[in-house]
Fold:
Amino acid sequence: MIVSTLRMLRLSKAARHISSQLGDQGAVMSGDATGGKSQCLFVFFLIRASLQALLLTVLLSACARADTFNISWDNDLLLGLDQGYTNGVRLSYLTSASSDAKSDSARVSRAVGEWFEAFPGVNPESQDQAVAFSLRQLMVTPADISREEPLLSDLPYAGYLALSSAVWSWDTETITGYGIHIGVVGPESGAAASQKWVHKLTGSEKPRGWDEQLGTDVVGGVQATHARKLWRSGSKGELENEIAWVGSATASSFLTSARVGAIWRLGKYLPVNFVPDYAGTSSTVGLPSALNDAGEGWSVFMGLGLEYIPYSYLKDNAAPYQFKESLLLGQAGIGATWQWQNLQAGLIIRATSGEEQSNKDSFSFGTLSLTWTY
Structure:
């Protein structure tokens, strides 16, 4: 299905990862304190209503085939850490491919494919299309979460909640996607309650500084992604190798960026989607055609990338916190997937180069992902 939800990094590192997990974000609409809170309350209820609509769509499509669901969980605790980008969760739903004549949701895919036919990389006659909907929550915390008063030389507390939608078009050689998102940064994101619950569940230290979190602001934006296969060897049922490149751009009031990367993949019964979830690539890219038709298979993969970030909401709104950030960042990721029947599990380890002047440690965390179709 289509090509998951930010350590003692510093603010810049947290912003970079949020960009990866968000599939990249866009348009802060903030005014005075009263107006900003009203906007955020509106977006909060809009996201909640949209999520209810998404869940209703899922229930109504229960009789359809080949619809895809995904849940991804990022956490630095997976690597024995608890600082910087602390936690992220993403829930996603993907309609059936437009070529699926037996699925009700495929009619939506075909209609959207026709609407986007004029966009580069979208060809309803020779490619499949599908529509994805995702709800994401992300959080950033300082290294010392036991302090109630903020430490201005460390990261601030920040929470993010967003709803996004994307249309994807693909064949065996290319994957192209266009998306839009809207969300809120601040208490309305629910990040504080989520982290406290996770830490209680895992027996970790209780975070005490969420009263000083950033926000409230409404954010939103658009993004585009294109990937192309460069080389492959082997045939289905045998050991297969693939190399591909991927590029994306985001115009966003949360984080504006452009990135390019390369992916190597090895496995048996590799699915059509040749861009797995790895650092530097939007996690939603891993949805279309993520499972193969054989009902079994495995893969290991590695990705390397560069990202250019001319704007970051966290950097622009973090005063009086102090930090420095590089515009050009390096990214890497390794991972593995295993498929049985219509269920796929994945584990990804990510790292991003550290650019903040007082801390050169790399930014690392793990992602667990579960995808299923019916």
